[in-house]
Amino acid sequence: MSTTIDITEETSAVAKGKAPLIATTTYTGYKKGIAIFDFLLRLGAIVAALAAAGTMGSSEQTLPFFTQFFQFRASYDDLPTFQFFVIAMSIVGGYLVLSLPFSIVLIIRPSAVAPKMLLVALDIVALTLNAAAGGAAAAVVYLAHNGNSSANWLAICQQFGDFCQKVSGAVVASFISAVALVFLVVLSGFALRRH
Amino acid sequence: MSTTIDITEETSAVAKGKAPLIATTTYTGYKKGIAIFDFLLRLGAIVAALAAAGTMGSSEQTLPFFTQFFQFRASYDDLPTFQFFVIAMSIVGGYLVLSLPFSIVLIIRPSAVAPKMLLVALDIVALTLNAAAGGAAAAVVYLAHNGNSSANWLAICQQFGDFCQKVSGAVVASFISAVALVFLVVLSGFALRRH
């Protein structure tokens, strides 16, 4: 009788505590690798996002001559889309900097679920913001380069060449940051799997 | 001696098979609820995405009069950003239709992991495409409504009022579809959690 009770106790202890522990230790190495890659990818995304915001924010060109239709000076301030781009990419870059401590926590404790859920949810928000800002700025940069004959919008890049180059560079940087965020989200998705 | 061996066998059987099964059956109802909500949200996103593509694709206005600077006719074909918008939103809508069978599979078998992983990965791609298309079209629609004095781009909406209203409606529909996709991705993230 005493033996039988002993068996039941040990079984329930295994079901509660030990069985999940076995599964966790097996995949800790795999998850730690993902967490380290996540941290490095995050560093790359920070550089790209802040480069995009900085390049766009400092884009300004003053022309040495005056024409009938165009002003002397072109700046990102003149186009609301570019202002949105600077704000959105600053938010993305700022969020990514703030997310670094959580990423470090995940390197130290790869099986922690709460910081992982938080990061993946905010990463998706950052990715959406980044894609919207990148797409919007790309649409305006395209118009600046090519103009549109139907709407009678002239290509301003013929006058403001340096301005357009800086702005185009910022859009490319935002696309790099978006690609890094896609990888971050997919990676977190795999890390959230339990097996 | 014989009793001790018996204990070990039963313990390992519990660790391998029974402990995970207990966790799965407890959360099946919760996961089925998420799967049904996922399906309904997907139906809403399909309507919004296809409405966005259809409204933009049918946006066309022919003016009854002629001015010096503007053509008679405005169509989404005239602006490459709007062409991209129609293509991108059609892809998003088409993907969402094709994803319905997988969503039904998840209602029937809420604990299946493979279709869930597939859906969440493709949902993120669709969300990114949707955000980029919506952002790009919104930037051009803003220019069409307000113009830009620095770039000397006139507001074409003063001439093409009906065209602008249709195009603005399409952008709003794409934002609704983007919000639905955000919820779908977050929901799938929660469903992928094992506990």
TrEMBL record, chains A, B:
> Where would one find the signal peptide in this protein?
none
Statement: the UniProt record of this protein carries the keyword Lyase: no
Q: Record's Pfam families?
A: CASP_dom
Q: Which ranges does the record mark as transmembrane?
A: 39-57, 82-108, 120-144, 170-192
Casparian strip membrane protein domain: residues covered: 32-180
Location in the cell:
Cell membrane
Q: Does the keyword Cell membrane apply?
A: yes
Q: Which GO terms describe its biological process?
A: cell wall organization
Q: Which UniProt keywords apply?
A: Cell membrane, Cell wall biogenesis/degradation, Membrane, Transmembrane, Transmembrane helix
Q: What is its main location?
A: membrane
Q: Which domain of life is it from?
A: Eukaryota
This protein's membrane topology, according to the annotation, is:
Multi-pass membrane protein
Q: Name one GO cellular component term.
A: plasma membrane
Ranges in coiled-coil conformation? none
InterPro entries in UniProt? CASP/CASPL (IPR006459), CASP_dom (IPR006702), CASPL (IPR044173)
What interactions and quaternary structure are annotated? Homodimer and heterodimers.
What NCBIfam families does this protein map onto?
A: A_tha_TIGR01569
Q: What does this protein do?
A: Regulates membrane-cell wall junctions and localized cell wall deposition. Required for establishment of the Casparian strip membrane domain (CSD) and the subsequent formation of Casparian strips, a cell wall modification of the root endodermis that determines an apoplastic barrier between the intraorganismal apoplasm and the extraorganismal apoplasm and prevents lateral diffusion.
**Which family does this protein fall into?**
Belongs to the Casparian strip membrane proteins (CASP) family.
Name this polypeptide is given: CASP-like protein
Q: Which organism is it from?
A: Linum tenue
| UniProt lineage | Eukaryota, Viridiplantae, Streptophyta, Embryophyta, Tracheophyta
